[in-house]
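Problem: given the chain below (436 residues), write out its structure.
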Amino acid sequence: MSSTIWSVDEHLEDILTAVQPLEPIELQLPEAQGCVLVEDVVVEIALPPFDNSSMDGYAVRVADVAGATEEFPAVLTVIGDIAAGDAGLLGGQRVGPGEAARIMTGAPLPTGAEAVIPVEWTDGGTGEGPAAAMRAHRDAPEGARGEVRVHRPVEARAHVRDRGSDVRPGDLALRAGSVVGPPQIGLLAAIGRSTVKVRPRPRVVVISTGSELVQPGEELTGGQIYDSNSFALTAAARDAGAIAYRVGAVTDDAETLRATIEDQLIRADIVVTTGGVSVGAYDVVKEALSSVGDEDEPGSGIDFRKLAMQPGKPQGFGSIGPEHTPLLALPGNPVSSYVSFELFVRPAIRTLMGLPDVNRPTARATLVSDKALSSPAGKRQFLRGTYDAQAGTVTPVGGSGSHLIAALAQADALIVLPEDVTSAEPGTDTEVILIR
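Solution.
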């Protein structure tokens, strides 16, 4: 274990220098969700690919409905139906003078037509008053023929989606570095892309340690507690964009832990352990991993160090296995573990994804509290708080104890007290890290 006291920034820099973005791969669209594009996507087809109707109604010539009113409607001859996906377009027939074609939303505008009249502006071919809807073709096929009375005029291109009005060939659809979310997948599919080149979502394996840990749902006996860290950190890894695997708590046995980690390397781009990194007699992570890589795996190994921070003083970082898989060893106290994840593991995950901005957003806020907040000299303290963006204030939640998980569940920010601050009075301007 290193005797040097590391700063928060030094530890994070060491991690981000060692962690490199994952190699790009080509993925089908459903599998690309949450991944980061590594190349620009250029449009190859117009979207929409043809002029089409934005309404259910009638495709008409503008001159034929000029001056139309409900009292003096324009009476047009209906020459047929055009449905979405219809390539026949009335068998090549044009919409000529005095004619109209029934047209459905998304259907291509027929030759000769200049605009679309919504069905509500007509009698729907019934010979009665204004129609509320268009009669289904299967129920009233005669509606595709006969006459329609139009009650209002229309301007050219009204209710028509022009070809290429969304994107045109050669347009930049998505930039490299974009995260592929549902809207991006929709756009890629709409322009005909079935695959995309991305950096895959990192695979994160989370392992908690401690013989006292019991899985939620089981009965507690003397000296036991429920394993919350592995659940919280697995969820946090997914929230950061990773594919996360939670491993059940490992007992305080060095050989068992090392074997468990080695078994998990096949599905890990990064391994996160929690617990067993301090100076106790049963700190199994240090015992299991302190000598990893010295002989069998040149270039790998875990360095256990002390950081000038509270909570989260004991930390470990390095690599393990033939692929030099990064491993971050976090403290076992729930708040220490979660704060450490936010400060160090989340940026590592985002770096593996190839994202340019890997840290949580920060803000300045006025401290609102009943009394001054104390902080140990020479340490950067992270307190839980609730942030009011509109008021520009932050209010502490709970105390500074690293076991107070209930307060963490209520917090949406971390209040940062720098190393040179030992007391922060109410009204102090503070930095906050937004964690939601």
